[in-house]
Amino acid sequence: MEFIKMHGAGNDFILFDGTKEKIIDYERLAKDVCERHFGIGADGIMVAENSEDYDIKMVYYNSDGSLGEMCGNGIRCFSKFVYEKGLIKKNEIEVETLAGVKKVWLEVKNHEVQWVKVNMGKAIFSPKDIPILCDGENALEKSLHIDDKTIIFSTVLVGVPHTIIFVEDIKKIDINRLGEKIEKHSIFPKKTNVNFVEVKDKDFIHVYTWERGAGRTLACGTGCCSSVVVGHALGKLNKKVKVQAEGGLIEVELNDNLDIFMKGEAQKICTGNFEK
Fold first, then answer.
1. Active-site residue, 71 included
2. At residue 228, what are phi and psi to the nearest 5 degrees?
3. Which residue out of 34, 220, 224, 225 is catalytically annotated?
4. Which terminus of the chain has a smaller tally of CB atoms within 10 A, N or C?
5. pLDDT 10s digits, 112-127
């Protein structure tokens, strides 16, 4: 099977063209190719499929074989993939995902995609829709007890559930230990992604991410978007923010209706054939 490996801000993926070749077992494929010692190595896979109503369909699986609704860095890589492979021949496309249809704009130079901008839609704050087991109309600034410590967190849904924790010094946080415990905490029926955020100023933040189904990743597009949404809702951030993830920089902007727009690069790493 032919593949292309790509990354968005260090968040890496294996992409396949499923418009002509039918792939039977996505779960097994994801586990096999994403394994970093015996496979190719990646945070997840994406498969392009034909869509009945839109330009293209994105199927996304995490490295542990679990189905994902959406992926922010992933959809940038996916959009570059389908354009440069010739599956799509226009600069504005609509991508069908399990989290709804996403409008994408491509900045192209010499037939290569330089930048990708995505309308990520609006964040959902309703606890039952996220889902999270808590009281109130939203899950902003709730408390969680882990290892005899109280953690203040906020959770929203931006395609997938994201939990945001603001910290004074991000480098002093045990991201892996806390991330895994919070991801699997019983108040999150479908688990959660976890983002640790250090605010440098109202226009610039650092975000480190523990991703549901993938573990520690160098960047998470939906996580960066969620961090800005929550930061703005709590009065910590403006509407246009540069987000420094561990693997690169992403720009997030909220319009007057609080629609979320994410802009960033997507880079090819390698191509090849997977024979396992």
1. yes
2. -70, -45
3. 220
4. C
5. 999 999 999 999 999 9
